[in-house]
Amino acid sequence: MIKRFSVLYVGQIDLENTGLDGTPADERRYPNERLVGAYDNAVALAKHMDELDYYCLWTAEHHFQREGYECFPNLILLGVHLAGLTKRLKFGGAFNVVPMWHPLRLAEDFAMADIMTGGRLIFGVGRGYHSREVETFGAPVIDNEANKELFEEQMEIIFKAFNEDSFSHKGKHYTIPADVPYRGYQLKDITLVPKPINNPVEIWQPIASGRTLEYIARKGIKGMVALTGELLVNQLFSSYRDIAAEEGRELALGQDMALGIGYYIAGSQQEAINTVRPYHDERYKWFAPFGFVRYTDSQGRAWGTPGAPSRAPTIEEGVEQKVWYCGEPDGFIQFLRDIEERYPGLEDVVLQWPEGMPWLEYKEQLSRFAKDVMPAFTGRG
Predict the structure, then answer these.
(1) Among 206, 225, 246, which residue terminates a domain?
(2) Domain check: are 256 and 168 in the same one?
């Protein structure tokens, strides 16, 4: 049963000349005074969501994006700042790119933020996909197996740091603690100081290609599936539930998952489609080259995989595949009720701020959703 509504804001600045025929993504260049506009957007968004009783603002960690699409390099620092400007809203990392961190620094920073905000940060982890940032920080991402191996060792350390009073670790990439003398004795173990005060730590990870699905289901990490065609959503949700059952976690379909959708509310479906088209298309100008078009063909194969389409999708196809909802509020309520019926364990829906949509326009969309759609689902226990 859907209980909570959140927003994913990846950190784009106010983009101009959007759409397929607009400025090519790789030709966008912005000076620092424009790039920092993402932080003004984040503050305005957080305050507005807090006033409207949304649950969580999810943001994305990325680096070096002079193109203006994803401008937040540190989600924990951002979350602490925004928590100080709001009252109840939570702030989620969607996602801290673990291979670009030392795992103990990431665990320490989150633990400190957990204390400082009274538990208002949600810990999210990812393996990364931008070669420009991950490889520049000295970690592999082009070599998927090397990336996976590093990430899983890092996560083993983070789990130990969060959950054990003291610990040690010896692996391919890390030896913790260092084998050195300290104050007259040889180091054998260490303790994370501080530890999170809200334990066990709730951890989320994205599920896109499905390559990490088995890992997170076995580890009890919650999964977020965003802007994904309904056939693939069903495959991913079902697989997560089945693998969790093998580990002794009996879940309802959709439980421990979040579903991210795009939307635009207007007087008719066609009006909404026409309005949101340039922002939808701007998103895929940027993301399609990374392989993140999670629309599917009739067999459930993601676009860009063998046998499936390789071109960028249209908003009409997004609506058809229930990646996006476009239309009136009553239709949106029914859209979400259909999702509830299909996935009875689903509690979290994450709304996408479309890339390029001006803040004042999206602010109005959030207000309409909170007034005309959200009350049909919240406050039901």
Answers:
(1) 206
(2) no
Give the tokens for residue 236: 């991913």
Pairing of strands 121-126, 185-186: unpaired
Question: In the chain, how many domains are there?
Answer: 2
10-58: pLDDT as tens digits: 999 999 999 999 999 999 999 999 999 999 999 999 999 999 999 999 9
Identify whether 299 is part of a domain.
no
Mean pLDDT of the chain: 95
Task: Provide the residue range defining the domain that includes 188.
Answer: 95-206
pLDDT of residue 218: 97
In terms of domains, do 112 and 156 share one? yes
Is residue 377 assigned to a domain? yes
Q: Summarize pLDDT for 69-83 with one digit per residue, the tens.
A: 999 999 999 999 999
Residue 198 shares a structural domain with residue 217: no
Are residues 224 and 184 part of one domain? no
Of the two residues 290 and 128, the one the predictor is more confident about is 128
